[in-house]
Write a structure and sequence with these properties.
This protein has 185 residues and is mainly α. It is 81% helix and 0% strand.
C-alpha cells in the first residue's frame, strides 16, 4: 500500500509540474503570436520568407493526414500506430508553429482581397480557425501528456474534443492558405 501511495504522490507532483507548464504555454503561445502578428516591421532585417505560407499549408495538410491515420489506428486497435501518428502530428504542428512565428516576425502582412460571398466565407473560416487554434493549444498539450504518461482514461476523455478541433484547425489552415494565396505579393 505504501508503494502505491508513494507512486500516486510522485505522479501527482509530476502532473502538477507539467500541468503548470502546459498552462503557461497555453497562454504564452497565443500571446506571442498576437504580438508578432501586430508588431511593426520597420528596422527588421529583410529576409525572404515568401515560401513559408506554402510550407504552412503543406505542414497543415500532413498534420491532418497524420491525425486521420492516428484515429484510424486507434479505432483498429493499433496503439503503436496511433502513438506514432499522433506524435507525428504533434511534431508537424510544432514545426508549423515555429515557422508561423518566423513568418509573422519577418514577413509582411497579407490582406485578403476577395469580394462578395467568398469574402464572408474566407473571414468566417479565418475567424473560426484562429479561435480554435488558440483553444487547441492546451487540448493538444494535455492529450499528448496524458497519452505519454499512460493516463489513458483522461487521454480518451480529452481526445474526444481534441481530435475534431485539431483536425478542423489543420484543414481550415489549408483552406485559408488557398483562399489568400492569390494575394501574396
Amino acid at each position: 500500500m505504501n508503494t502505491i501511495k508513494a507512486n500516486n504522490e510522485l505522479t501527482s507532483a509530476r502532473d502538477k509540474k507539467f500541468l503548470t507548464l502546459i498552462a503557461v504555454l497555453s497562454v504564452a503561445i497565443p500571446v506571442v503570436v498576437a504580438i508578432l502578428f501586430f508588431m511593426p516591421k520597420e528596422g527588421q532585417p529583410k529576409v525572404d520568407v515568401s515560401f513559408l505560407p506554402t510550407l504552412h499549408a503543406i505542414l497543415n495538410s500532413l498534420t491532418a493526414v497524420a491525425l486521420l491515420l492516428g484515429y484510424a489506428s486507434v479505432r483498429s486497435g493499433n496503439v503503436k500506430g496511433h502513438r506514432a501518428a499522433m506524435l507525428g502530428a504533434f511534431g508537424l504542428s510544432a514545426i508549423f508553429l515555429v515557422s508561423y512565428v518566423t513568418y509573422h516576425f519577418l514577413g509582411e502582412r497579407t490582406l485578403y482581397g476577395g469580394e462578395g460571398l467568398l469574402r464572408y466565407i474566407y473571414y468566417f473560416i479565418l475567424l473560426t480557425h484562429i479561435v480554435l487554434a488558440i483553444v487547441i493549444v492546451p487540448l493538444v498539450l494535455l492529450s499528448v501528456y496524458f497519452g505519454i504518461t499512460n493516463q489513458l482514461k483522461r487521454h480518451r476523455r480529452l481526445s474526444q474534443w481534441t481530435f475534431p478541433i485539431w483536425l478542423y484547425v489543420a484543414v481550415t489552415g489549408v483552406l485559408v492558405y488557398l483562399l489568400i494565396s492569390p494575394y501574396y505579393s
